[in-house]
Automatic annotation (TrEMBL):
One Pfam family in the UniProt entry: Hydrolase_4
Domain of life of the organism encoding this protein: Bacteria
InterPro entries noted in UniProt: AB_hydrolase_fold, Hydrolase_4
Annotated TM spans: 34-55
GO molecular function: hydrolase activity
The species this protein was found in: Gimesia fumaroli
Protein name listed in UniProt: Alpha/beta hydrolase family protein
Residue ranges of every copy of the Serine aminopeptidase S33 domain listed in the record: 120-231
């Protein structure tokens, strides 16, 4: 390092951190060399942490953005999927799709309301951190085949929706989805199942916890491939990072799931490399043994199941798990 650059470093860096005298001088002894390289490794580590902190939401949220997303892109028969929309408390218009129970066809909103009025259960789907609702068509079709309506919204910043995703933002979105179902479509809360995939499970758990504390619980909560907390999930992938200090969106599912009083179904693949099975089990263990109505919590382990491929790897097991859970929640529904 030349004299001019040495002078610049010494002039600007001391106000950032107190540095040992002579640390920029060429090391002459073994001790000086140790200090010299330790400071450089430490500086690189700190800079890397700062970079991770800056880009963390880019790493967590990976939406597929589009200018528009028509139901025609779902390649479904005409009338079985309808476009829906709601507005959040902070003024964002969020769009989604309504998959009709039994995959019946309707021509307009009035006929869709007629189908909803028949009282079949409704699933509000909270998808994972990547893609958009068009990537969840197979899951929605499976649920609809079980005589369940599905409201599949996209979060802010996903698909054609405005805004940028964050934990606070996604929880606001979840509240808007709930209000849309209960207020706009007149669906009784006791007929609504919240279902979250991966990161969506963190959103669904936060919403379910709120609703149960407000004494308006959903009919049930389904969590597929969901973490105990974002801190735990991030620590698995970045064990050398003090995640709990740096993470803005922590999704503390394990801390709030004890407040969830509705029936719970957890599904997780044993070979999940994105959210390890042990994190799903940790979340399950933190939940109450049974719901306020006496239905025991359930965990379905998919042997050799991955994170994103369960709908293809274990479609039969998923169908059976969803069907049996719905039958427990709505035993009077002979069609399920």
């Amino acid at each position: 390092m030349n004299t001019k650059s040495q002078s610049a470093w010494k002039r600007w860096l001391p106000w950032l951190v107190p540095l040992p005298r002579g640390m920029f001088d060429k090391p002459q002894t073994g001790k000086q060399m140790l200090v010299y390289y330790l400071w450089r490794v430490s500086a690189f580590y700190v800079l890397l942490l700062i970079l991770l902190m800056i880009v963390q939401r880019w790493l967590i949220y990976q939406p597929t953005r589009v200018t528009s997303l028509s139901v025609d892109q779902a390649n479904a028969p005409f009338g079985v999927i309808h476009e829906i929309s709601t507005k959040t408390e902070d003024g964002l218009d969020l769009k989604g799709w309504h998959f009709l129970a039994g995959q019946v066809a309707c021509n307009d909103r009035a006929s869709c309301d007629g189908e909803l009025a028949k009282g079949r259960p409704v699933v509000i789907l909270f998808h994972g951190n990547g893609g958009n609702r068009s990537h969840r068509v197979e899951t929605c079709r499976l649920l609809a085949s079980l005589n369940l309506h599905v409201f599949a919204f996209d979060y802010r910043g996903y698909a054609e929706n405005p805004g940028s995703p964050s934990q606070t933002g996604l929880l606001n979105d979840a509240r808007a989805f709930w209000k849309y179902a209960v207020r706009d479509r007149k669906i009784d809360p006791s007929r609504i199942i919240l279902m979250g995939e991966s990161l969506g499970g963190g959103v669904a758990t936060l919403l379910a916890s709120e609703l149960c504390q407000q004494k308006t619980p959903p009919a049930g909560l389904v969590l597929r491939s969901t973490f105990s907390s974002m801190v735990d999930a991030a620590s698995f992938h970045y064990p050398w990072v003090p995640v709990s200090w740096l993470l803005w969106d922590q999704y503390p599912s394990q801390s709030v799931i004890s407040d969830v009083a509705c029936p719970l179904l957890v599904i997780h693949g044993t070979k999940d490399q994105i959210v390890p099975y042990k994190l799903g089990k940790k979340l399950f263990d933190a939940a109450s043994p049974a719901s306020s109505t006496g239905i025991p919590k359930q965990m379905i382990s998919i042997e050799q199941g991955s994170h994103n491929g369960l709908i293809y790897e274990a479609r039969g097991k998923l169908t059976q798990a969803y069907s049996q859970f719905a039958s427990q929640l709505f035993p009077q529904e002979t069609a399920i």
